Amino acid sequence: MIPRERCAYSAIVDRPPLKLPNRARIVVWTIVNLEFWSISRPMARQVLPAPTGEVFVPDVPNWSWHEYGMRVGVWRFFDLFARLGIRPTLSINARAARAYRSVARAARRAGWEFMGHAWEQMPIHKVDDQAEMIAKSLDTLARFAGTRPIGWLGPGLTETHDTPDLLAAAGIKYIGDWVYDDEPTEIKTTHGPLITLPYSVELNDIPMMLVQHHESAYFTQRCIDSFERLYREGAERAKVMAIAIHPYISGQPHRIKYLEAVYEHINRHEGVLHWNGVEILDWYLSARAAA
Amino acid sequence: MLPSERIDFSAIGQRSKLALPSGARLAVWVIVNIEEWDPTQRMPRTVLTPPAGGAPMPDIPNWAWHEYGNRVGFWRMLDVLDHFRIRAVLAINGSAISRYEPIASAALERGWEFIGHGFTQQSMQKVADEREDIRKTAAAIREFTGKHPRGWLGPGLTETWETPDLLVEEGFEYVCDWVLDDEPVLLATRTRPIVNLPYTQECNDVAMMLIQHHKASEYYDRAIDQFEQLYADAAQSARIMALVVHPYIMGAPHRLKYLHNVLSRLRDRRDVLFWTGAEILDWYLAQRGAG
After folding, report:
1. What H or E segment, with its residue span, contains residue B33?
2. Engineered SS bond to B239: which of B116, B171, B219, B234, CB 3.0-4.6 Å?
3. Domains of chain A, start order
4. Chain B neighbours among A 84-143 (CB < 8 Å)?
5. In this complex, do B53 and A180 lie within 8 Å of one another by their Cβ atoms?
6. Which CATH number fits domain B20-40+57-290: 3.40.50.2000, 3.40.50.10190, 3.20.20.370, 3.40.50.300?
7. Model confidence pLDDT, tens digit, residues B175-187
8. Predicted TM-score of the model (pTM)
9. B216 vs A12, A182, A225: nearest CB
C-alpha cells in the first residue's frame, strides 16, 4: 500500500484539539537508539571515510567509533536519565540486545520501554524475509524486556510498502517511521489500524550531527527553539516533541552537556510530561475518543 | 534558445531608473512553495539518508518529513504571514491543489497570488510533454481560483531550452527561474517577450537549510544582510527582494521564529512594500512604458 492508501491528507487545524491530563501542554518523548553494526558489511554511518572515499570492508575505524557508544557513551545516558527521573523508550536492534547484554539489562532495570528496531542496522529493503525478521526481533526483545514490545521504529526509519501490514500482523500497535505530524495518527493496514507517533528527524542527532554537520551546541539551540514553539502551541492543543539520540553521537564527552542542557531548559517549565511510547499511545487512544 | 539569445548582458548601474510609488525603495515578495511528493518516486530532497547509504525505494521517512509541512508546518507559517498582513505568492504544483485543498483554500481566502510550479515536483527536463504539463498546471489553478495564473516558477527552477517560449504561448506573463538580477528583466521568446522577476536561491530555505546545512538563525541573519544591502543599493533605483520558504523547512517548530523575526524587522520600515509577483509585474511594465 502506498502512504495515501493508508491515510488521507489532514490539516492539523481541521482536527479537534487533543488534551493532556492536568492541563499539561506537551509530552516530551525521549528515544535512545541502540544498534548492531555488523563488521562484515559497510558501516551504517561513517565519521571518517577512508582516504579517496572508497568503502572498504572491514571498516574498523567506523565500527569502533560506533562501538564507543556501547562501551562508554550509553552509560552517560543512563546516568543522565536516572538523575532526571526520565524513563526513555529504547529503540534497539534485537541483535544488539544479545551482543550488549549488560546494556539491555541496565535498560530493563531502569524501567525503559523496549521498542522494536529490526534485527540489525541495515535498510529494511535488504531484508529477505521481513515477517520472519520482525518476529525474531520481537521474540528476542521479549526475553530481555520481560514483555513483548508494541512499538516499532524501522532502521533509519525505513519501510517497504508492506512493512506496516507485517508489523500490525506481528502485534505492533505503534510505529515511529511516519514523521509527518505533531500528533499521533491512525493509518490503515491489512491487519487493522496502526498508530503513528511523532518521532523526529529534526531533533535527532543523526541528521543534525552526521548529515548536516552542525556544531554540538546547536543541538541545545534547536531543541529549545522547538520546545518554545510547541509549548506555546500546547496551550491550545496537546503537542508531542520527540528527541532521538544515539550513544555514539550524543554520548560523546563533548556533546553530552548539550543534551543535559536541553532537559534543564525543558524541566524549568510547568505542564511538561516525560512519557514513553506506550504511555503516549494509551493517552492518544483515550484522548481522541474524548476530542 | 540559448540564454544569450533571450537576453543581452546589461550592467545594473547603466539602466534607466525604476521608481516605486510613494518613495518606497524596495518591494519584498514572499513565495511559499507547496509541493506534492510522489511516494513511488525518489524524494526530491532528503533529511535522513538510509543506513550505509544508497537510495532504497520506497523512501517513506523522507516522504513523511515533507508531508509534515503540509499537515502542520504550513499552518503555523500562515499565522506568521497573517500576523504581518502579508499576501504571499503560492507557487504550487498543479496536482497539489486538489491533494492539499485546505492549503489552496486558505491562500485563496487571503487573496494570495497563485503561480504555476509544474504539475508535480520533478525537473522540467524529465517531464514527458512539457507543454501539457504547463497547460495542466494552469488549468488546475484556473479551475480553483477562477483566474489564469500569470506567473511560473519551474520545479527546482528547472527549464528546458524551450520553457520560456511555451510559457508565453500558454498565457504566462512572468517567470522566476532566472536569478540573474535585482530588477525584473525581459526575456525574448519565439513570440512575445516574458518578464523574469527576481526570485532567489540565496534567501531560500532549500538551499540554505538542506544543501548548505546552516543553522535556522542563518535564515534571519542572511535575510537581514541581504535586505540592508539591497536597501542601500535602492538609493539609485528601486530593488526587489524575494524571500522563499517551504512549509516542511521553515514551518518546522524550531525554524519558524526566524522567519517571524525577519518579517518583523522588514515590516517596520515604512519605505518597504510587500507585493505579490503580479503587483511587481504590473508596476514594472508601467515603469517600462513610462521610461
Report:
1. strand B26-34
2. B234
3. 18-290 (3.20.20.370)
4. 121-123, 125-126
5. no
6. 3.20.20.370
7. 999 999 999 999 9
8. 0.96
9. A225
